[in-house]
Amino acid sequence: MVSVELREILKILGDFRLEIKSLKAKEGEFLTLLGPSGCGKTTTLRIIAGFEKPDRGEVLFDGRVMNEIPPYGRNIGMVFQDYALFPHMSVFKNIAFGLELRKLPRGEIEKRVLRILKLVGLEGLENRYPEQLSGGQQQRVALARALVIEPEVLLLDEPLSNLDAKIRERLRGEIKRIQKELSITTIYVTHDQEEAMAISDRIAVMKDGTIEQVGKPLEIYYNPKTEFVARFLGLSNILELEAENGKVHLGKLCFNVGRDGKVKIFFRPESVYITEGDFAEIVGHELLPGRIRLRLSIEGNEIIAERFLEELPFKIEDMPKSVGVLIKSYTIL
Ligand SMILES: Nc1ncnc2c1ncn2[C@@H]1O[C@H](COP(=O)(O)OP(=O)(O)OP(=O)(O)O)[C@@H](O)[C@H]1O
Ligand SMILES: [Mg+2]
């Protein structure tokens, strides 16, 4: 297992500037680059793979500088967003390609291809051509092709983005299972925050060519360092209020913020508990499967709460005009 590290990377492409001071995927780790379109995810992956040379800085595998080593010398497996399968080659040939380049003996190639086909659940399809496969199957061929060379590093660029929601969910579970089984250091790119949460050991959130925050999924979700990260990872409540004596009061709520003046208090809708009481006015609601999302107004500040139905102190049919609210965890941005 190897670690992958970027140090003081700078890459300028037209008027886009990618600047990564430091980023490290540990041995066997599943690290995800998450961010909106155009933030530099693919560029970062291409620098790690060696398809793009940084203007400054270093790419290190296990502490060894790789800058001068071409992609084929880096022992990486890469899956591109559009799969890039060879249309005129069978599934077997597509997967065997990298092994043939490496001049492995015929018998060894066959053994490895059949083993990897089993791993990705494509046994029996080795003679088909890409056009005879579904999107999900093509994606597995691309994954098999990247894995068959037994890479030390796996780079996946939005590998599930062309698939429908059901297949996407199933395949992301399989990618994770295979990655853990082979313990390959993996860098995964997506702009889908749910996918990132589900699959990653750690997530690096990117914005405009820089990394905003790196952390474990729940750390980033509940303790974002910036408003951008907070908003990118799902529904959020951000209250801009005035603190006095280290505290902010709102209705019957009291936040200990440890400073005075303007503060931004952040919490997720599921951190808002509904109690009996009347200082939060219900201004709207939306039913979700088994849950309810409430829009509440407290002294003119709107917040969102999300609860399972059985947690409410009232029946949906007898929804009161106002309720009490308890916020169990929050953080200051
Ligand atoms: N060869 C190039 N010349 C000029 N600009 C480029 C080049 N390649 C990429 N860019 C620009 O760099 C920025 C980052 O591109 P990149 O492909 O890394 O983004 P991304 O995060 O992968 O986006 P997406 O989610 O849409 O795939 C974009 O603004 C893009 O237009
Ligand atoms: Mg991209």
From TrEMBL:
Keywords: ATP-binding, Molybdenum, Nucleotide-binding, Transport
Sequence ranges assigned to domain ABC transporter in this UniProt record: 4-233
Main location: membrane
Cellular component, GO annotation: plasma membrane
Bilayer topology annotation: Peripheral membrane protein
Reactions the enzyme catalyzes: tungstate(in) + ATP + H2O = tungstate(out) + ADP + phosphate + H(+)
Signal peptide: none
SMART domains associated with the record: AAA (SM00382)
Kinase as UniProt keyword: no
Superkingdom in the source lineage: Archaea
Gene3D superfamilies for the chain: P-loop containing nucleotide triphosphate hydrolases (3.40.50.300)
PROSITE patterns cross-referenced by the UniProt entry: ABC_TRANSPORTER_1, ABC_TRANSPORTER_2
The protein's assembly and partners: The complex is composed of two ATP-binding proteins (WtpC), two transmembrane proteins (WtpB) and a solute-binding protein (WtpA).
Summary of the function given for this chain in its UniProt record: Part of the ABC transporter complex WtpABC involved in molybdate/tungstate import. Responsible for energy coupling to the transport system.
PANTHER family: SPERMIDINE/PUTRESCINE IMPORT ATP-BINDING PROTEIN POTA, SPERMIDINE_PUTRESCINE IMPORT ATP-BINDING PROTEIN POTA
Protein name: Molybdate/tungstate import ATP-binding protein WtpC
Organism expressing this protein natively: Thermococcus paralvinellae
